[in-house]
Amino acid sequence: MNESLQTLSHVNKLKSELSKNPNFLRDMIKPMLLENQHCAYIKMIPKEDYENDQIEREANLLKNHLDGLTRQQRAEFKRC
Fold first, then answer.
1. Residues with Cβ < 8 Å from 18, sequence gap 6 or more?
2. Can you give the pTM of this predicted structure?
């Protein structure tokens, strides 16, 4: 509830600023995003054994799921 009240106060502040200056958002976006000279570089390096890890995780998930089934649920699953 407290978060929603904080959000409401931010929305009200935005409405107030927009009523004073219709270009408020444009004036905020321009220096913060469009004219900002800062940048970040992200280097992505593939994990060589990603596919094997993924297969192993999926097998473990399936095993855990099947271990949680009752005999009747397993029988129904095998019929499909």
1. 24, 25
2. 0.40
